[in-house]
Amino acid sequence: MRQFRFAKVVAAFLVxxxxxxxxxxxxxxxxxxKTTLTxxxxxxNDMVIMQDLSKEFEQANPDTNLKWVVLxxxxxxxxxxxxxxxxxxxFDVMTIGTYETPIWAKQxxxxxxxxxxxxxxxxxxxxxxxxxxxxxxxxxxxxFYAESSMLYYRKDLFxxxxxxxxxxPTYDQVAQWAPKIHDPQNGVYGICLRGKPGWGENMAxxxxxxxxxxxxxxxxxxxxxxxxxxxxxxLTYYVDLLGQYGPPGVSxxxxxxxxxxxxxxxxxxxxxxxxxxxxxxxxxxxQVADTVGFSRAPIASYPNGSNWLxxxxxxxxxxxxxxxxxxxxxxxxxxxxxxxxxxxxxxxxAAPPGTRKSTYANADYKKAAPFANIVLKSxxxxxxxxxxxxxxxxxxxxxxxxxxFQALGTQVGQTVASALTKQxxxxxxxxxxxxxxxQTMKRSGYIK
Length: 448
Fold this sequence. Notes:
Largest sheet: 5 strands, mixed
Shape: globular
CATH class of the largest domain: Alpha Beta
Number of domains: 2
Number of helices: 18
CATH topology of the largest domain: D-Maltodextrin-Binding Protein, domain 2
CATH architecture of the largest domain: 3-Layer(aba) Sandwich
Number of strands: 10
Oligomer: single chain
């Protein structure tokens, strides 16, 4: 009996030791466990730099591990939209824009940035960008870089043709210049423009063209206006200009494809996002860095709608399991010290543009970026509340700020691309686009 009692005591003692050890191991694994943040971003140059420099964040925050999902623009938009709408929780940080932010904030899909530290200096963010990323007075995304649109041109080709480019050109002038610099036998095309279908690809540029030609997507009663004379004038101009003086395969070219074409000397002109300026002016990434010229986005009859406003921004979805760690990363990647870090590692010409007053006040940046003043003027003059000649019920320069536009804009973008490739006529494309818009607006309850 005594031996039995002794055995029980020993067993209890051993079990106790085992439990202590298990508890210690469990506590240690908890203490050593890292938070993994999955970041969805676009395959643009500035985001590639961010991914590379994020090692600095991980070193400063050893408890956080970053996992990157880098996608082509149209794919990114589809993936993050599906994930956030379905509360999938795949991503902790999403790269989104000025279109999605207020719409998703209204749905309570995003975590607001309520308690930014004083050193973040939120008032340093350019006011149009800050406003575009806010909903009911709260910021729901922080801008990684912001952009308007502008005209890039080859100064050497223009000088040879005897052309002087004003700071504010017109679309009539662009049409006159294109044939004078078009030299396909030597691999140079008069103009490059977005042709790849997508609400944020070809329709970003084309909507600004419609705006400045005096057109609009909808009237004040939400009736679609895509079969209007202004849309016909804009689409005819676009199809004719690219058909005669654009590169082959133009309907496959989005921002990145045109950037590659221009930077290798194959485009005489290119109208697109101001963010490309730093890349084109950098001899490390551009064969035409010494000859690229910059001016405002061209205008036609209505100047205000010709230059867009966009910010590729970082947001934290409400479905994340690590909101504090995610917001900490977003603050780091959009901060003043991050801008300085890029300048230190890549040179000031590569600094994220369009977001902070302090960047444009920096003498080193202004010296390295001959385009800085034009970019700043373009962003500050963009007015999403007055994008069209006639009053309209929506905001947005290169998009219409309603949830339905993502699908509708892409659908119309495919129709515009079919006109560009001559599968349908301009008139057929516009009638088809009008029908698509009417069906969408009826189905969504905007019109009867």
